Amino acid sequence: MRRQSLSERLRSRPTTWAVVDAGFHVASRRGEFVGVVDTDSEGRFLAFDGRGQIIGAFLDIAQAMAEVEAHASDVPTRQLAGV
Fold it and tell me: How far is the C-alpha of 29 from the C-alpha of 40, rounded, in Å?
């Protein structure tokens, strides 16, 4: 079985990004929180998963967002009971 590329996974699972504050972006997918990208004092973009664990630091915001989305694709999601 062929493994999907990063771009294929991102297209198959649309993610919505919201700018909550300057330099702070929150990602959700189908109403479920999947992670954030924040900026540090050195101008790097810090990517965190939906559990608050650091994924990595990036010089490019698009790469940080792509990593959050890709990580969310690899982590099993939980549904709240009754939702």
Answer: 25
Angle subtended at Cα 38 by Cα 4 and Cα 80, rounded to the nearest 5 degrees: 60
pLDDT in single tens digits along all 83 residues of the chain: 666 665 555 555 589 999 999 999 999 998 899 999 999 999 999 999 999 999 999 999 999 999 999 988 755 544 434 44
Q: Which of 83, 21, 8, 9 is nearest to 36 (CA)?
A: 21
Q: How far apart are CA 17 and CA 8, in angstroms?
A: 18
Q: Which residues contact 48 (CB under 8 A, 6 or more apart)?
A: 35, 36, 37, 38, 54, 55, 68
CB atoms inside a 10 Å sphere around CB 61:
16
